[in-house]
Structure formats: C-alpha cells, structure tokens
Amino acid sequence: MPDVIVAVFNETAWPVALALAWVAGELGHRWLALPRISSYGVVGFLLGATQGGFLPVAGSGPVTALADIAFGLILFELGYRINLRWVRANPWLGVTSIVESAGCFAAVFFITRWYALPMVPALLLSALAMSTSPAAVLRVANELHSSGQVTDRSLHLSAFNCVLAVVAFKIVMGYWVLSGAGGLFQALWSSLVVLLVSAGLGALFGVAVPALLRALGGMDRSATVAFAITVVALTALTHALKFSPLLATLAFGLVARHRRVVLSQAQRNFGALGDLLTVLLFVFVAATLDWTKLASGIWLALAVIAARAAVKVAVTTLFARLGGITWRKGALTGLALTPLSVFAILLLEQSRRLGLDLNLLNEVSATVAIVLLLEVLGPVVTQRALIWAGEATQDARG
Amino acid sequence: MALEPFKASESLSMGVELELQLVNPTDLDLSASAMDMLHLLGRSRFPGEVKPEITESMIEIATGVHTRHDALLAQLRQMRDVLAAAGDRLNVAVCGGGTHPFQRWFHQRIYSQQRFEELSALYGYLAKQFTVFGQHVHIGCGSPDEGLFLLHSLNRYLPHFIALSASSPYLQGVDTLFDSARLNSVFAFPLSGRAPFLLRWSEFEHGYFAKMEKTGVVKSMKDFYWDIRPKPEYGTIELRVCDTPLTVERAASLACYLQALCRMLLAREDAPPAEDDYLVYHYNRFQACRFGLDGAIVHPRTNHNLSLREDILATLRRLEPHAAALGSQAAIEDLYRVAAVEGNHASLLRRQYADEGGVQGVVDAALRQFRERSEA
C-alpha cells in the first residue's frame, strides 16, 4: 500500500471506530433494546488489534488519556450522587456494602485457588471482582431516566465497592511488592500512601472548586464546565504523580457534592461531551481484550461470574427488609450490580503504567473472559433490573 | 352509579389532606419514590392516612377528624416526623410547596394504579402537568343543605385561602410572577371551577348531578375538580384551592381559619349567598393567584375595590370570638402575622431565590422549612 493510504488509515482508525460504535449503539438500542454501551463494547472488541481489527494496540497515547478523562467524569458524577448522610441514617446500607464486597472477594478467592491460580493473581482477581463498574450502572440509569431505590442503592453500592476494591487491590499490590522485589517502603508507598494522597487531592479540589464558583457567582451554567475542567486536570495530575485517578475523581465528586453546588438535571452525563467520551471509553476498553484468551479462560470466568452474582444478589436480598425495601427490590439491586469491566480494565491499565506490570490480563486468561462477558452482558442485566423494578421512566426503546 | 347519600357528620369538625413532594437530595429534583415510601410506611402504623397520588413523585397524607387546633397540629407533626424519618432511610427528602420549582413535567411517571392510568389516558399531558401539590381541608356538615350553604357562602372568602397558602411562584425553572402558579394547572381541567349555584341537596342530586351523569361526562363527585366540592361519603365540604404550605403548622392554621369562618357563616353573620356573587369570583381568584396578599379584589355586594390583605386582616379580627370558642386563637394569630408582617410562603421562597441564587436554593429552603418545628 502506498504510504499515504497507510497514513490515512492509521489516522482515521479511531474516528471510524467511534462512528461504527455509535451507529451500532443506536441500532442495538432501537432494535434490540440493548443499552448503548453494550454495543459500543462489542464493536470495540471486534475492532481490536488482536481480533484482526484495525484499531492499533493501545499505548499511552491521546486515546488512553481521553479514556481516563471519560472515566474520571463518570466517577466524578458518581461521587456527586453519593449521599453520605444516607449511610448514617440507614446503616444497613453500609453493612450491605461491606458484606457483599467481602463476600465477593472470599467467593472468588476460593474459586480461583481451587482452579490453582497462583496466590497474587488470585488475590488481585478477587479484589477486582468486588467492584461494580460505576460507568455501566450510571450510564444505564441515566439512559432510562430511572429513579427509585434500586437505582439509588446500586449507585451507592457501586461507589462503595469500587473504593473497597481499590483499597483491596492496592493492599494486594503492597503485599506483592513486599513479598517480591521491593522493600517495606515501596510496599507502603504503592498502597497506603497512594490511596490517601489520591483521595486527599480529590477532596482538596472538591473544596476549592465550589469555593471558587461561589466567589465567581452565577454558577448555574458555568459549574458543569468548571467541574469538567477540574476532572481533566485532576486526572492529568494524578497520572503525572503516579497516584490513583480513580480515587481522586471519585473523592472530588463526593466532596464537591457535600459543599452544595448543585448540578442540574440537564447537566447529567456532562451533556454531549460525556456522551462522546463514553463511546470512546467503552470502545477503548473492549479493544484491549484478546479473544484467544476468551476461549481458554471461559470456565473459570463463568464460575467467577456466577459466584459473584450469587453473592451480590444474596447479600442485597438478605439485608433488603432491614434496609427498608422489599425482598424483590433487594434482589434486583444485587442484579443491577453485575457490570464490572470498565472499572477493572482501567484499574489494571493504570497499575501497568505505574511500572508494576502484574500482567493479570495476559497471564490469567479468565480475566479477559470475565471482562468481556460482563462488558456486554453487565449493562443488559442492570437495564433489566431497573426496568423490572419499575424505576425506568421510559421503556428501553424510549 | 348514583350520587351516594350525604352522610351527616359533626358540624365544624375538620380534616386535612396534604399532597407532598418527594425530592432527591442529590439534585433536588423530584424523585419517583412514592412506591418505595409507601412500602416502607406500610410496614409500621402510620399516624394517619398515606396514599399515592397521580405521579410517582407525590404522596398524600390525611389526618383523622378533629375539632381542635392543637390536636390537629399534633397529628400533622407526628405524620411529618414519621415521613421525614422514612425518607431518611430511603434517601428521599419530603417537603411542601404548591409546585416543585424546576421539575420537568414530562419526566414524571404516572403512579401505576387503574384510576391514575385512566386519568392519564383521558387527559394526556395534563395528567403529568398535574404534578402540583395542594392542601385540601374538609369541614364536617350536619346536613347536606348546610354543606351547600357553606360551600356557596364561602365564595367571597376563597381568595383569602389562595393568598394565605400560596407557595408556588416557580414553575418549570422560572418565576411565573404568580404567587400560586399551581392553580393554573388545575384550571386547565374541563370540570374545574365552581359548583353550580344550588342550595338544596335534592336539587343538586337530581337537578344537576343525575343529569351530568346521564351525559356520561362524570361518574362520581371525584370527577369534579371544583374549588370547593361536597364530599357526600364523608359528609363534608372540601376546600381545594390551597397550595400545600411549606410547614404543617401553616396547614393547621389554614384549616382552623376555614373552621372559624364556617362557624361565623353558620351564625348567619353574613348576608346569604347569591348567584350574582359569582360575577366577580374568577376575577378575585385571579388577583389572589397572581398577586397574593397584594391582590385587589372586588366585593361582590358593594362592588368596592378592596385590598386583599386588608380584607383578610378585617376578617381575622371578626373571627376572634369564633376562634376563642373553637380554641384556635393560635391559628388565627399565626395567619394575622402572615398577612400583616411576614407575607406568605411564596414571598419567602422568592427571598430564598434572591439570597441563594437559583431554583435549587428554593427547594433546599422548602426542605428545611418542612422539617423545622416552627411555632404556631
């Protein structure tokens, strides 16, 4: 091929992929009532380099940075929707969160060890399995304009179990560093310090930005842009300092919310900017997956997915009445917590860039299978749970 | 289904219904949580009655039958506290106010119940637009004719209730310049307005209701959205023009104002009602909705222009002996303060808007007002 055509091909690979994903998202939504993000994932996976698709292997280029920003915006919005006073008023919510996260960790650890996975990958996979992808839950909830207890609880539980998963993940990494090459200092550094400083940075911005907006006045319109810019800055800063952008943006949203600057309904998802970045995020994440791993890891993957779902549903159902909702809504909350992928992938990606290449994606093929299956199926399950709970304002085709 | 017989009840007994807003504490928009709230409230004994309303972000509470201000207020406070506590467990905030200042009506979900679904099918977008929040006050009547007499005698005082209760200046994100924008949503319904001028129950039953029923337009009294309507199964007349105030204390005061007014009317201290009283009725009602206490009304008998505020203050003074007899002086004093000094809740919300900048601040203030225990 002439050079110029190759150049054109390389330059346009991402825009073309985004266009295809968007079209697939709209058609899947219209014809099959699929959540749009599921279709984005399928397209991303099919176009990934290892599947023979035309998307280049993701490095640390601008696309990766954009994906991080996209996820940062979602985590900010999630943090923003978390009401800590609720946990104080209804402690059963906190209990549910801790029990379901710990239960998932234990169940998955048991299964992976039974499948004779080495200690560290088993621990890491168990930590990942605790989390629910907030990106999927939030996008699906917003797509359905859903509101009610299942929506609210799955968002809160997703935020909590992500924090717990990051903490567990970092602790495992600390343990790994300690047991391997690094000394005590590096172990502490890669776990505790990173956690605290990341959250602290986010909190700092969470106080500063609302204060600035208040000083400027007239924050009805400008707040969204200011928050978006801060998320971009915070993501870049935590990358540069090798801290956790996930925790930082989540903490930013959480603190900003409790400083009472209100994001209006129209600004949910960060409008069209958020929609665009979501396409990119879900394509990007799925494009990192390798189908050859899918086949080899499928059995372990299915076992982990089943155990994780069973634990989440069992625990949310168990505490449903104590928490003030029906058994049915409790069970549906657990179901809505199924998605996993985006959070897990980005956590792994970001750890990889810290130089701690654990290669969980390459060495443990089950991870790929889990992530891929849940990338497509997770949002569908969440969508169904919200519809069955009667909390969607429009039906899925709306 | 013929009109049910008017069940006589204790004269001047009263009951209050409040339609309340369910709000998401995160974005302060309405939250479609009625089903979840009703489930949780249904698990323990509620100190009163609690019911769904047409859309999922509304809930209605009703007191029992009372004759005294203190007992009514005590029950309202109890219900408020139970509601607030249930809301805390579900991350749902509860407040008063005639409208939610920035909700989008098309985001509202119709509560899944046959009657509401039928209404939605018949009225289309009007049903979702009807996500507005009113206070209804029932006054017990010893006989149906007493009920019709009170219903029509009250025509001249109706603007008082609109102005005193008004708490809906904002709608769909903007200041409507009305103190009660809520009532404009009610007027859109074909069977809203006033009851026909009939003072005998037998005429009302056979000369009006039976004919209307034959046209197929109505099936029961429920289909009339009148400002005041008879409620035969309770043996009451029901005043429906009040916005839900921001506090239950104000709701109790308004109910006792109506009770004292009815006592005065039953003592025949006013001239008997006449059809021509209604000539100025809609104009006066508009003045009260638009300008609140600053409205200027026309007296139906003298045709004099009156300041609504002055008219209310004069009426409150006239009611003092009746309030004393009923034990509701505190309520009358509360409303006197409102009319003379503080202004209604619409003006309170406008001050909040100016101070806190924006409609979200308005909701925040409404939430705080509802929870606070104010003196009355």
Description:
- The complex is a heterodimer of chains A (398) and B (376).
- With 398 residues, chain A is an all-alpha fold.
- Chain A is 79% helix and 0% strand.
- Chain A contains 18 helices and no strands.
- Chain A has helices at residues 3-32, 36-47, 62-81, 84-89, 91-114, 119-130, 134-144, 149-179, 184-216, 219-240, 245-258, 271-287, 291-318, 320-323, 327-336, 341-353, 360-363, 365-388.
- The longest helix of chain A is centred in the middle third of the chain and has 33 residues, at 184-216.
- Chain A is globular and about 65 Å long.
- The model of chain A has no long low-confidence stretch (mean pLDDT 84).
- Chain B is α+β, with helices and mostly antiparallel strands and 376 residues long.
- Chain B is 45% helix and 15% strand.
- Chain B has 15 helices and 13 strands.
- Chain B has helices at 34-41, 69-90, 114-123, 125-129, 144-153, 158-165, 182-187, 201-215, 248-266, 281-291, 308-318, 320-326, 329-342, 345-356, 359-371, and strands at residues 14-23, 49-52, 58-62, 93-95, 134-140, 170-171, 174-175, 192-193, 225-226, 228-231, 236-243, 296-298, 305-307.
- In chain B, strands 1, 2, 3, 4, 5, 10 and 11 form a seven-stranded antiparallel β-sheet that branches.
- In chain B, strand 8 (192-193), helix 8 (201-215) and strand 9 (225-226) form a beta-alpha-beta unit.
- The longest helix of chain B has 22 residues, at 69-90.
- Chain B is globular.
- The N and C termini of chain B lie far apart (43 Å).
- The relative contact order of chain B is 0.16.
- Chains A and B meet through helix 4 and helix 8 of A and helix 1 and helix 2 of B.
